[in-house]
Amino acid sequence: METWVLLRGLTRESAHWGRFPEQLRGRLPGARVLAIDIPGNGRLWQVQSPDRIEATTESCRQQLRALGIEPPYRLLAMSLGAMIAVDWADRHPGELDGCVLINTSLRGFSPWYRRLRPASYGTLLSLLLSADPARREQQILQLTSSHPPAAMTEAIDAWTAIRKTRPVSGANALRQLLAAMRYRAPARAPAVPLLVLVSRRDALVDARCSLRLAHEWKASLGEHPSAGHDLPLDDGCWVAEQVAAHAFFSRQ
Fold it and tell me: How far apart are CA 193 and CA 203, in angstroms?
């Protein structure tokens, strides 16, 4: 049985994948699809987040071992989660059959003003200052989605409930951000098949970050013309189709 491990981004948890795991299973019949949390988020919300990507990677590996799930794995990860996937592929390539990297940015490939768009700074500052969970989730949705779900109120309500039940502390959010800022990807591509997916209308991370990465590492590339940063939310079926159609992940 092939095992797909899903990794989210900064301060987000496994529940934020929404319907996407189901959509991926629909395109990969028989596959095991498992979403895990990084320390400080989700089920691990009371754990201190590491301030290094490498330590976060080790936590993810330990979680899978504790569950009795043996490699090889296939990783599908976005944003900060994709940095973890790159580190994993670089240091433990024998454990992975491939990685799908979604809307990520890596130090060493792109300048800071593309890795986090300056136009988003005002919204991010407002998020830090706001004490209203529902308002914060609404702002996150506006920043990360260019195709808000038809049931937008329900999505915001669900995310607000997550924030209230498993809140990410400010200290953990800063440690995750510090880890992302510190991490420098290897100059050479990891010895693992890579598929890079990018949203052309990403308002948080410039699409050129993923385009440059795919070019430098000669990775396969899929471009969505209209989705925002949260590509699995905006068009999860498209992401699942890209994965299913990709030669590295084909069972043919």
Answer: 28
pLDDT in tens, 19-35: 999 999 999 999 999 99
Query: Rounded CA gap, 130 and 109, in Å?
Result: 33
Are 114 and 105 in contact by the 8 Å Cβ rule? The answer is yes
Answer for the pair 1, 32: CB distance below 8 angstroms, yes or no. Answer: yes
DSSP string, 128-191: HH---HHHHHHHHHHHH-SS--TTHHHHHHHHHHHHHHSPPPHHHHHHHHHHHHH-B--SSPPS
Q: Are strands 220-224 and 194-199 parallel, antiparallel or unpaired?
A: parallel
Phi and psi angles of residue 2, each rounded to the nearest 5 degrees, phi first: -80, 145
pTM of the model: 0.93
pLDDT in tens, 155-212: 889 999 999 999 999 899 999 999 999 999 998 999 999 999 999 999 999 999 999 9
Name the pairing type of β-strands 73-78 and 32-35: unpaired
